[in-house]
Amino acid sequence: MDNSQPTDKKMLKPKKPAIVVVIINILVMVILAFVLGWLAMAWLGYWTDHGKTAIVPAVKGLPYEQALATIAEAGMVCELSDSVYDDKAKRGSVIEQNPRPGNEVKPGRTVYLTVNAFYPRMITVPALTDISLRQARSILSGLGIKNIVEVPVESEYRELVLGAEYHGAPIKPGMRIPINGKVILRYGDGMTQDVDSMDMEGADMDLLGE
What we know:
Blueprint: H1 9-12, H2 18-47, E1 54-55, H3 64-73, E2 77-84, E3 94-98, E4 104-105, E5 110-116, E6 122-125, H4 133-143, E7 148-153, E8 161-166, E9 169-170, E10 175-178, E11 183-188, H5 191-209
Parallel strand pairs: 2-5, 7-11
Antiparallel strand pairs: 1-4, 3-5, 6-10, 8-9, 8-11
């Protein structure tokens, strides 16, 4: 009679070497990373319209409303970035755009427009009298006023601003004028003192001659 005990099959099943298990785990992680990366790239391409481009249309010189429609038809959106006044350009028209016409961009890109205002910007003018001509000129230039006329008047105070005018009316501190307006600065020429000095010198010469 055979007294041998039945053999445990689980005990007889060969074990996989540890190195094989490690390699299998690494391969699984590599494959999983590849699949996740591919899915991420596919989603990113869908989200950003990868491969799709649009050409920026030329809208410079067009009325603002027409420029909006033209940009929308090209698959982009528009944003007003600035408004300036140029008396040489048509009022309400686009005078600058960014990106420039002809550039390839992604659909839905924002095009920034600069539009010519219908009316010139108004500015507040500070006190311009009883300061030097150079200082008054610097103040006006800093405010954006370019049309400055300097008129010398007879005065012993050389290059001291004695008066400032806009449209024939004196400019008072706090007065608002258009940025393209003409400002007249009346400043002393310092000639009165020179003439008086010449008269005194002439009188002294006469006395010496006597």
